[in-house]
Amino acid sequence: MRRFASATVVMAMATALFPIPATPAHAEPEGGAAEPLIVERITPDAVSEDSTLRVTGEVANTTSESINEVTVRIRYSRHPFTVRDELDGFASGQGWQPDAPGPDEEVAEELSPGSSQEYSLSVPVEDLGLRSYGVYPLVVEAVDGDGGVVGAQYTFLPYTGEDDDTPSVDLAWVWPLMERPQRADEDTFLSGGLDGSVTEEGRLGRLLAAGAQTPLSFDAGDEDLAEVLGLEASPEESPDDATDEETARPLPTEEATGDEDEEDDDDQEAPERPARTEGVPVTWAVDPSTLDDILRMAVDDHEVVEDVLAVPAEDEPERYEAEASEAAQVWLREARRVLAADTVVAAPYANADLVALVRNGMESDAETSLRIGQEAVLRALELEADRSFALPPNGLMDEDVHALLASHGATRFLLAEDAMPPASWLSTTPGAQAPLPDPKDGSDEESFALVADAAITDVLSMPTWEPGQTALALQRFAAETAMIAGESAGDDRVVIASPLPGWNPSPEFAQGVLAASEDLPWLSPERLDTVEPPAPEERENTRRGLTYPDRAYGEELSSTYLDQVEDVRRDVRLFNSILVEDEDPFRPALLRLESAYWREEEALAGATRSLVAAALQDRMHDVRIIPGEPVTLASRTGTTGILVANDLEDETVHVHLSVFSENSERLSVGEYTHSFEIEPGAKTTVYVPLSARINGRTVLNVSLQNAEGEPISSQDTEIPVNATGLGTQALMISGIGLLILVAALAPRALRKWVRRQARPGASAPGTTEAEGDATPTAEGSGVEGDAANPEEEAREDASEEGTGDTPATDSSDPGDGDPDPGRGSAAVPERNSAERDSGGTGK
After folding, report:
1. Cα angle vertex 772, ends 771, 774, to 5°?
2. Is residue 788 within 8 Å of 781, Cβ to Cβ?
3. Which of 241, 282, 302, 651 is deepest in the core (most CB within 10 A)?
């Protein structure tokens, strides 16, 4: 490298040696191609008369042919930029080209394809001939032996001047800790990305560490983090519920600040503001939904959807169970420690699209997003967000949202520059403070805007992950702030640096901009909560009034989409109507569906809405009628039991049971218990009396309703009832059968009795008492009637079946009129001993 001479003659000769291209020499590589020239470091960020400028980096051959005599050189201008708008044109390569040559170095005689070579250029600043404080254009380029440009980078050189009278400007930081909604319902995460984001290498982990500006420990160690953080609370707890004493300090209540304490409170001094002991003060801008998601992930196991957009809408996506995240627990531990030293401001819960909600008549949701947002911050961080700050989505609001935020105690509104643009006549950068009109709510509190600088926001959004990008972004940040400080716009201006919510800088850049805020001589770090509104006598019309840009209307959540959310809300209201406690467990899920993040994520918003609706239906189905067997009525009246179950894990429900007959003329329903409560996981049986008027099959329609009679299920449970009247008919049939049996057996019994009277052994008129007594009787034998002689009984039965009432004859005289002595012998039993002794005949 050869030393750069300051003489005019040498300058002229150098100009001739290094021709200036008429068109931009550098264009962004396409398709992710590597840069041929990389600037890895420029030191110092701001040069003074006594400094030495050093530029280091690497030049690479990204072509397919060798490059000969590669030289890296610097071009610059001795004339600083006059207005900030010139920075954009120069950075793009489309602006004016500097013509002063600087140092150069030949890095390679031949650079083969794919090879690279490091370079290092340095020059005393006094040799550059810079005249005064300002920002100067600087080009670092590589050329070949023919003067063709191999690659170039356009950057900036802030110069503080020769004296110590450097202008200054106050810079206040808003440091975001925000992520788009990560859950559908309370237990279902849309991806596993949040678990990686809170690690040391993850986005939220890096932002926390950079903003803390002090070493953090992302190691869990041996301590029980769940116990340390007080994470024993149920993960199902709704943000609308009172905060658990074990998880967060309670919100102040009217009872806690009664009249008896007012006098003591007046004597006490206001609580001290958080005090950072080292580094640049930052104001942490948090999305309460993000903190809620991290807290839920840290508390207990949860479900994670594999890829919510990879399956058709009608199919159920794949899920897996994830354990409680130790990384989330560590992040919460460090966040509670770090954020307690600074001011914390909260966006609406899930960054709800306030303007769209108010415009579509959903003011209650807008109100709720502010209320439960404060509760979520307290629950996760164990500290309260500063209620005097309001952070509307995208930094934009209209008059209605202004009134809404003011009604919740906000007096300082963090806005984007589009919301209050600089006045057209103004050529310098106005301060961040700007007066706001009185809000529509009639609040007496004076409110004012704190407007973020749009150009700084753009600089902070520059790419910083590829080689050399961080160095260029840091130089641009220094240039922008130096230009603001150098404007003749008076003293005591405050500029706000506010990155976008999804800011994802490299660690080097995030740490570098905070270090630059403290090291650059024209910057003075300022706490945002100490910025006062402009005094009335100092107010100038430097900004236009509160503006809601026309383009913002088209970017809002559409009425069609919000109508679809409203459909889900109706089912949520129905579910809430059966809960005994005043709970609203799906309210956070609805607010997540109303997030401004979904403006550019329509497909993901629709898939998330479907998941919420499905989870809601599952919870509704947990309160159910357990179907029983078909009912058979054996008589005209009866009772059936209907089993109702509450399978919800945490909520007690109060339901109304409705039972009606499909055909009331056949079957009517009597009085039964209509309304009752069921504890979580419990079942109860309701007994319903039934009365059948006509035999046949009928259906009972059974449903569960809320107190207003609205069914909580789209389908009724049907119980078939078959009325047979079998009991009464059986008695009638049995009675008729008995009569028939009696009528059939009576003649036979009568014939038997007559036959007994006609038997020879029976007593007849004229028989002596002694003779009559000699005949065996039932009384003497121990049996009754014909049973005393079974042979005779058998003969009588055979006679009835065969010959009828044929009179029996005496078997002692076979020749006396009976041609068949065998028959007579069989029909007449043997005479007894008394008859044989008397000669065989009676007198």
Report:
1. 65
2. yes
3. 282
Whether residue 213 contacts residue 280, with contact meaning beta carbons closer than 8 Å, is answered with yes
Minimal CA–CA distance to 107: which of 153, 66, 58?
Answer: 58
Q: Which distant-in-sequence residues (6+ apart) come within 8 Å of 463 by Cβ?
A: 469, 473
- 663 near 698, Cβ under 8 Å? yes
- Cα 442 to Cα 200, 302, 359, 438, 767, distances in angstroms: 47, 45, 20, 7, 134
**Mutual orientation of helices 790-801 and 726-758 as an angle, nearest 10°?**
110
- What are the beta bridge partners of residue 159? 47, 134
Residue 616 contacts residue 375 (beta carbons within 8 Å): no
Q: Exposure pattern of 315-325 as b/e (b: 16+ CB <10 Å)?
A: eebeeeeeebb
Q: What is the pLDDT of residues 450-478, one digit of tens each?
A: 999 999 999 999 999 999 999 999 999 99
Q: Give the count of beta carbons closer than 10 Å to the beta carbon of residue 424.
A: 6
Per DSSP, the three-state class of 839 is coil
Say if residues 520 and 44 touch (Cβ distance below 8 Å).
no
Q: How many C-beta atoms lie closer than 10 Å to residue 654's C-beta?
A: 14
* 550/269 Cα distance (integer angstroms): 46
d(CA 327, CA 355): 35
Name the E strands within 144-241. 149-159, 169-177, 188-189
Measured CA to CA, the distance from residue 590 to residue 569 in angstroms comes to 7
Residues 778-807: tens digit of each pLDDT: 333 333 344 444 444 444 444 444 444 433
Residue the block writes with tokens 């809620």: 292
pTM of the model: 0.78
CA distance 162 to 156: 19
Positive or negative: CA dihedral 806, 808, 811, 815 = negative
How far, in Å, CA of 412 to CA of 391, rounded?
9
Q: How many CB atoms lie within 10 A of CB 461?
A: 15
